[in-house]
Amino acid sequence: MKKQKTKKISFKPIGIIRSDFSQAKDTVFCCEKGLKAKNIGMVILDSKHQRGLKGIEKFSHIFVLYYLDKIKKVELITYPGPLSVKNLPQVGVFASRSQYRPNKIALRLVKLVKVKDRSLMVQGLDGLDGSLVLDIKPYIPGFDQPKSIKIAPWYNWLAKNK
């Protein structure tokens, strides 16, 4: 296989996150609660992207992809959960949902509460206030929900939060 040069890529944000979170440590309870987190946040799109929201109100849940611009460190080995969960093994960052990633891209499944103009009110968003939104996609079980799954045992603590 021929070695290729690494290409640089760039993204133009489509909007911004508005939340009560100013620091990464503020979002710990979202990690602990998963989809049960009740916090409300806003995804506000740039006006030029507002037309792209047509039909989004027909979905109960959406994925928000955003840029972790306020996270400055990278941890290739990490703990796959909040500090409140004891006895977790250290694992590679790609086997975790850690925010301390080589590419500062976050993915979060959130409940879509309300759509008004270019603003999406969502529940469970763990983004810091001012984080740049890269994309929004609807959650579609036929695409996004496998028939059978296997998860690593270090995420068994999430089942206890159901």
Automatic annotation (TrEMBL):
Keyword hit for Cytoplasm: no
Gene Ontology MF, one: methyltransferase activity
Keyword Methyltransferase tagged: yes
Keyword set, alphabetical order: Methyltransferase, S-adenosyl-L-methionine, Transferase
An example Gene Ontology biological process: methylation
CDD domains, A to Z: UPF0066 (cd09281)
Pfam families reported for this sequence: TrmO_N
InterPro entries (UniProt xref): TrmO-like_N, UPF0066_cons_site, YaeB-like, YaeB-like_sf, YaeB_N_sf
TsaA-like domain span: 11-148
Similarity comment: Belongs to the tRNA methyltransferase O family.
This protein's name: tRNA (N6-threonylcarbamoyladenosine(37)-N6)-methyltransferase TrmO
Lineage of producing organism: Bacteria, Candidatus Beckwithiibacteriota
Gene that this polypeptide is encoded by: tsaA
